[in-house]
Amino acid sequence: MFLSRLLVVTALLLLSGCEKKQNSLQDELEVQLMLYGAHPLLLTVKDGVIEGARKYDSGNKISFHLNDANFQFQEAVFQSRQVSRKGASALVAFGTPSIKAAISNSNPDVKVFFGASSDPVSIGVANSNDPDLWKEKGFDGKDNVYGLVTNFDYVGMASLISNVLPKKESNEECVRIGYPMSDGEPNSVLAYDKLKFQLEKEGFCLISSAVSSPVDVPLAIRSLISKGVSAIQVGPDNTVSGSIGAVVSIAHNANLPVFTSDSASISKGADAAYAVDFYMLGIALGEKVAQVVLDKEVNEESRIDIFSNSKLYISKQFLSSHLNSDQAGLLKGMGLEEGSIILVDKAK
Fold it and tell me: Residue 196 falls within a domain, yes or no?
């Protein structure tokens, strides 16, 4: 009799333990981070997302899991399909190719968040890439899609270039700027068109060189150098930015400065950028993720917003060697207020 009761009690305890474990697993909210590649900009946004989500996730219910497509679109598609079928609460995609893959290939019941894309047309949330129309008409897209659209500030970028580089000589057609570009990344193509138009007003020519994968980047930079460019400009291009180390090494060996569209690349050796603070973008996106996943009150009209707070980022070494540390002169030339410049130390 005693043995029978002992067995019953033991069974109940085991059952109770299993239920607690099952409830614990059910309480955990799985968020899959879909990284297009290990580029500094995307990693910065990713870190910001995790930090931002903690603001609303005081109970640590959200668990983050990282997926890296290694700059391969088909891998991004495969990963999006796989993780959405395994019961993820949400996918957070970084970089336009991964965003497209996540939106098009994930389960409709899974929330999809995106950041670090300045081309809302290609990811299906707008009908125009004109920022003025974004503000006027807002965004569209599927009901399960949330995110932040960034605006590549080509006017500010052109102003930086024109205030840093020497003007064209009277016998020159223009001062050439090299632009390595992946045709498969709409962000990069769009930025090229807009920046080219703006730079032509300042007496500069933007010369492109196509890349299909990271292994093409060194060849593209050498090709641009052979065409007599005075600097290298890296746009919002994941393929090129993922190889920023090679870009910087080859360009600097030819005594050419490297400008970028993201601040994270400066610590990797680039010289200057006019860009949004992508860590703060990540924090804002992380807050949005946590609010939605944890069923907090969310304004459906702001499922997709514009994130824009561009600043001038410049390496201390470049400011000293090329501009005689004249911060005030550079800010005045660009029409920026004091405090709009952030000095960055390059990696040793």
Answer: yes
Highest mean pLDDT among 19-28, 74-83, 134-143: 74-83
HEC profile of 131-179: HHHHHHHCCCCCCCEEEEEECCCHHHHHHHHHHHCCCCCCCCCCEEEEE
Joined together, the tokens standing for residue 77 give 């598609």
Residue 221, domain CATH = 3.40.50.2300
Query: Do the strands 311-315 and 304-307 form a parallel or antiparallel pair, or are they unpaired?
Result: unpaired
Rounded Cα distance between 310 and 291, Å, is 26
Is residue 196 within 8 A of residue 233, CB to CB? The reply is no
Give the pLDDT confidence of 290-346 residue by residue, as tens digits.
Answer: 999 998 766 767 889 889 888 899 999 998 888 777 888 888 888 887 777 888 886
**Are 178 and 259 within one domain?**
yes
Distance, CA of 299 to chain centre: 24
90, 197: one domain: no
**190 & 248 share domain:** yes
- pLDDT tens column, 63-100: 999 999 999 999 999 999 998 888 889 999 998 889 99
Say how far apart CA 326 and CA 138 lie, in whole Å: 40
pTM exceeds 0.85 for this model: no
How many CB atoms lie under 10 A from the CB of residue 70?
12
Structure confidence by residue, pLDDT tens digits, 254-292: 999 999 988 888 988 999 999 888 899 999 999 999 999
CA distances from 29 to 18, 63, 110, 336 (A): 19, 6, 12, 43
User: How many domains, in total, are found in the chain?
Assistant: 2
Q: Which amino acid is at 345?
A: D
Q: Which residue has the tokens 């006027």?
A: 136
One domain for residues 143 and 185? no
- In a domain, residue 136? The reply is yes
Nearest Cα to 148, choosing from 291, 303, 41, 310?
303
Beta bridge partner(s), residue 94:
35, 115
